[in-house]
Design a protein that fits this description.
about 130 residues; alpha+beta; 3-stranded antiparallel sheet; two-stranded parallel ribbon; about 30% helix; elongated
């Protein structure tokens, strides 16, 4: 059905494949570019963004694969810039509940301080 036929009752134009976006945000985690400058700023505003990321991980397998391989790079491509001493890890322990952990690295040290972590938990009540 890629070409219209002369005998068709309803002519169907050839399908046009959608163009892929080469750069820029793809998953709309944030509406505008967000730059974090301090630990307090990260604690106050990053959980909302990571909550969206976790929700996408549950429903979008492609995003889950991309995010699990490079969480910080994925956030940067989406317009979320973290302080240099901040790192993000994606963890999926023995359960199906993924977790995102945000760490702060101490200067001149291998020690990492956990700032926060997010994990979706589904509960049912009766």
């Amino acid at each position: 059905m890629s070409q219209t036929t002369k005998n068709a009752l309803v002519p169907v134009p050839p399908k046009q494949l959608p163009a892929k976006r080469a750069t820029g945000p793809r998953y709309d985690l944030v509406s505008d570019k967000v730059t974090f400058t301090s630990r307090e700023d990260v604690r106050a505003r990053l959980p909302d963004i990571l909550g969206k990321a976790l929700a996408l991980i549950w429903i979008d397998r492609e995003f889950a694969d991309v995010f699990s391989r490079d969480p910080q790079g994925t956030l940067e491509r989406e317009g979320v810039l973290l302080p240099e001493n901040t790192s993000i890890e994606f963890q999926k322990p023995g359960t199906d509940r993924p977790r995102i952990v945000v760490y702060e690295r101490r200067p001149n040290s291998n020690f990492k301080l956990r700032i926060l972590y997010l994990q979706l938990v589904m509960m049912a009540g009766r």
